[in-house]
Amino acid sequence: MMGLSRRRLLALGSGLVAGAVVPARAQGRPFHVFAVQWRGATDVDRGMKDYLARAGVEVRYTERNARQDHKALAAIVAEIKRERPDLVYVFATEAALGIAGPVDGDPALYVTDIPVVFAAVGDPLSARLVHDLRKPGRNATGVMHLAPVSVQFEAMLSLFAAKRMAVMYNAAETYGRGAVEQLREVAARAGVELAVDTPLADDGKPRIELIGPTLARLAATRPDVLYLPSTSFFIPLAKPLTEQAVALGLPTFSANEPMIRSGDAMAGLVASFYEVGQFAGYKIEQILRGGKHPEQVPVESLSRFSLLINMRVSRRLRVYPPITMLRYAEIIDAH
C-alpha cells in the first residue's frame, strides 16, 4: 500500500505555498478548527490530526458528532457561525452537504464564508459540493476516498468473473444513490445482471434489523458477488453484516477498507482511511499556514488504491482469486 508521508505530501505541494504569508490573526495563538464528524471518530480524523501535529501546526479543535442525523447538522451550522473558527473540517458526504451545502445552496443555511475542508467524500461533483475538482469555485475543497465505480466494477469482473451481481446500498445517502445509478450503466454495457436492494424502512431510514432480510433476498438471486458501496451506515456493522453474507455463501466486495480489515468482506479496491486523513491535513495546512484560498486548492484523491483480498474468507467460501491478482494484491489473514 502506498505510504503517504509528510515528505511526500510536501513534495506534492512544493512551490504552492512558497512565500505565502501566515494569516495575521493566527500569530501567537493556535488555529481554531471546527471538526464535524458524521459517525464518530474515524481513522480519517486521526490521520488529519496526526499530520497537522507532525507538521507543527498548532490547532485547537472543537468537535461535534452528528451521529448520522441530518437534523443535527443545522444546529452545528448555527454553532459554527457563532464560533467563527478559522476552518471547518467535515467527514463524509452527508455531513459535508449539511455543513457547506451544495454549490447553489442558500448561504443563510450553510457555512459559506469560512474555509471548509471535507474528507472521505466519494463523488463531490455528483453531490454538487464543488463546481470543478481542479478549481472548486467556492470556499471548500477536500479529499475523495473512493476509486471510481467503473474501476471497482472492472475489479469485480476480474476477481469473480461475475455474470450476476447483487448490490446492497444505503438509499438514504447521496453517494449510495449515485453509485447505484453508475453501476446500472456499466453493468448494462457489460451484460452483467444486477440485483439491487436496500435495508430502508418506511420512514426512509436504514435499519439494522432489515439488513438480514435484505441479504437473504439478494442471496436468492444467486449472485457471483455482493457489492457494498460506501456508506457510513455499514462500516460500524462491518463484522456482523459480512458474517451474515458469508453464512449465505456471498463473497463480498467492498468500497471501504474497514469492511475487509475489520469484517469478513472478501475483497475491495480501497484507500487507506488514515492516509485520506493525512491528505486532508495537508490541505488544511495549505490554507491555514500557507495562506491558500480553498478555491485554489484542488479536490483530489490518493494517487493509488489497494486491492485487498482476505484469503481466510476466500478459503471459507471456496472462491479463489486469479493467481495473477495475488502478485499485486495486499493479502490479509493469509494463514
TrEMBL record:
Superkingdom of source: Bacteria
Pfam families: ABC_sub_bind
InterPro entries on file: ABC_transpt-TYRBP-like (IPR007487), Peripla_BP_I (IPR028082), TAT_signal (IPR006311)
Keywords of the record: Signal
Region forming the signal peptide: 1-26
Database matches in PROSITE patterns: TAT
Protein name listed in UniProt: ABC transporter substrate-binding protein
Native organism: Magnetospirillum aberrantis SpK
